[in-house]
Amino acid sequence: MGFAHITCMAVNDGKTDWGSSYRLVAAQKWKAKSAAMGDDVTQKLVNYAQPLPGMKVIDLASGTGEPAINIAERIGPGGHVSALDLSADLLDVAKKRAERKQLGNISFYTGDAHSLPFPDQSFDLATCRFGVMFFEEVGVALRELHRVLRPAARACFAAWGPFEQPYWQSTWGVVRKHVGTPIWPASGDDPFRFADPATLIAALAQAGFNNAEASVRNVPWTWLGTPEEVWEYAQSVSTPLRPLLERVPKSKWPKINAEVYEAVSRYVYDDEIRFGAQIVFASALR
After folding, report:
1. Which strands make up the sheet holding 268-269, listed edge to edge?
2. Cα gap 49→281, rounded to integer Å
3. Is residue 41 within 8 Å of residue 73, measured between CB atoms?
4. Which of 50, 68, 111, 206 could cross-link with 83 by S-S, CB 3.0 to 4.6 Å?
5. pLDDT digit string (tens) for 38-56?
6. Cβ distance 126 to 150 under 8 Å?
7. How confident is the model at residue 181 (pLDDT cuts 50, 70, 90)?
8. What one-character DSSP code corresponds to residue 105?
9. Residue ranges of the domains in the chain?
10. According to the CATH classification, is domain 21-285 in 3.40.50.150?
11. Alpha-carbon distances of 222 from 13, 56, 174, rounded to whole Å
12. Greater confidence, 23 or 162?
């Protein structure tokens, strides 16, 4: 498969457009392989959160529906999951997935984590998979989450560990080498802002949470396909890193692509690309 250069997203007022059309197309095109790659993180986050039958759960930055759908399956008809995301289009994908599974205990809300559309003390549990590091004002968002949780309710998060790990180094690390640093956009969206677990613990404590804990865990991160596919996918869905592509001269793309394919190929085993991932898992009590 040859490299398909993807038109860079529009950015309004310096803010990341999480619902860009290219991302929606990518969500559909790669949904099976993307789900397979992220499934281990989802399962570990759900196991870490320990949802129980009858719980009322909020899932922030739910996107196309994980871990919200997985949790809805676990808590049964007596419980309920409220899945919230900025993108109505991504939530439409999640809603269709839930309908196919005939889940009647999940609702979808288009909304901002900084201003949650729920009353005080509404939920027994909160989850957020790869979302907390993108909150524009993390303190505001975490205080809002604290507000809607019931006393002693638990909030659980999964965030990326360090940039220096196989998936990132063999893809965006190659681009950074050719373009230089910094690679983050002016808006401040940084997928690795909580790579040091202590920073997320501190943010949770400052927002009023108790007994905050966080640690880096090794999790399978496997792409069931080719290096060319995983590179196209990486560019499609790594929204905060998209502006980096604008800084790449067209003349450099052939060399960058070749280097990415070579770097990714080091992790190929049979028909799988086994990167492995270092993920920060964190939790705290209301």
Report:
1. 222-223, 272-274, 268-269
2. 10
3. no
4. 68
5. 999 999 999 999 999 999 9
6. no
7. low
8. S
9. 21-285
10. yes
11. 35, 32, 19
12. 162
